[in-house]
Amino acid sequence: MKVVVSGGGTGGHIYPALALINELKKNNPDVECLYIGTENGLEKGIVKRAGIPFKSIEITGFKRKLSVDNVKTIARFLKGVNLSKKYMKEFRPDVVIGTGGYVCGPVVYAAAKLKIPTVIHEQNSLPGITNKFLARYVDKVAICFDDAKKFFPAHKVVLTGNPRASEVLGQDGLKGRNSLGLDMNKKTVLIFGGSRGAKAINQSVLQMITNLQDKPYQVVYVTGEVHYDKVMEEMKTKNIASQVIIKPFIHNMPEVLAGVDLIVSRAGATSLAEITALGLPSILIPSPYVTANHQEKNAQAIADHHAAILIREQELNGQVLLSKIDEVLLNDDKLNEMKTASKKLGIPDAATRLYRVLTSVKNKK
Ligand SMILES: CC(=O)N[C@H]1[C@@H](OP(=O)(O)OP(=O)(O)OC[C@H]2O[C@@H](n3ccc(=O)[nH]c3=O)[C@H](O)[C@@H]2O)O[C@H](CO)[C@@H](O)[C@@H]1O
């Protein structure tokens, strides 16, 4: 079986694609995969690191207002379609799947035009512009939230969940803790701002970091690759407790997630799929800079079930964040209640469900 996978820009689109590739390999040892992304999204580094053959096209997103940039985007799109067709004629995939981000547009469109079976995977309850555009050309649309159904042709929609949920299960949390040099006996909070880091979260951590000195728990704080140097510069003036570990990015996130007790993060859909699959409690600070405020909707759905505490960015500061972390980590009853609630929201067999969708479209043609 040969599969082309495309998804890019941010980790939320890339990691589900990699989780699907792992599921394909598990079921199909001689499967061959080709990943098509861009040179400048996070995918290039992450996919190469995973050892998967990678080819690139150039693409940018549409601006909401009329502009000359949009003319350039159309030209790039058409060029991307032609290059994708070339890649596909060489590779001859049985099926092509897009997991979101602009790059999927030309790749999946090209495949549909070549009459290759196609699937798109939408992680969010509110679909992105690329998936809305592609929905009319593809064979199946895999979704993670019932709410997303209404945006797509009903006969194409299948609720699968996010394959990254399956991938984080059964991981060795002790290995994750060891990889960061963490104390095995202390509770741990992991703080990160999505795959790219978040300025607002970084500022709050800087405000509260000196107050972590006497806490009975430890902290893993991920700044985001692009913010790391600036954060570390500001940290020079702070008194940092020994139980705080600071990293620019975590590459073995499934293991690390399996080894921690509480998450503080943005409310990207892939992170939430991971958190709920593992039954982790969370403090969510949705990014207000996303289309139609979709992260707040994601976070609210989890908070409504008492599995998360929601802090809006405008209410966030170091003191608020620290008090919420204390509220959960220093109270075992609360921690356990949130764990149970979180676990109920996960879709642990999402990878198998998505794999079935892929094989069903492949076999139909
Ligand atoms: C600003 C923006 O447009 N954000 C979107 C993007 O978020 P973003 O890319 O931040 O996506 P998510 O939070 O959903 O997922 C992040 C992924 O990166 C991984 N990770 C993160 C940090 C790290 O150090 N190491 C690591 O491996 C996480 O485990 C997870 O697998 O895609 C999501 C899924 O479509 C959307 O819901 C978000 O709204």
From TrEMBL:
PANTHER family: GLYCOSYLTRANSFERASE, UDP-N-ACETYLGLUCOSAMINE--N-ACETYLMURAMYL-(PENTAPEPTIDE) PYROPHOSPHORYL-UNDECAPRENOL N-ACETYLGLUCOSAMINE TRANSFERASE 1. It is a peripheral membrane protein. The lineage of its organism: Bacteria, Bacillati, Bacillota, Bacilli, Bacillales. UDP-N-acetyl-alpha-D-glucosamine binds at residues 10-12, 124, 195, 250, 295. This is UDP-N-acetylglucosamine--N-acetylmuramyl-(pentapeptide) pyrophosphoryl-undecaprenol N-acetylglucosamine transferase. Its EC number is 2.4.1.227. It is an enzyme of class 2 (transferase). GO terms for molecular function: glycosyltransferase activity. The gene is murG.
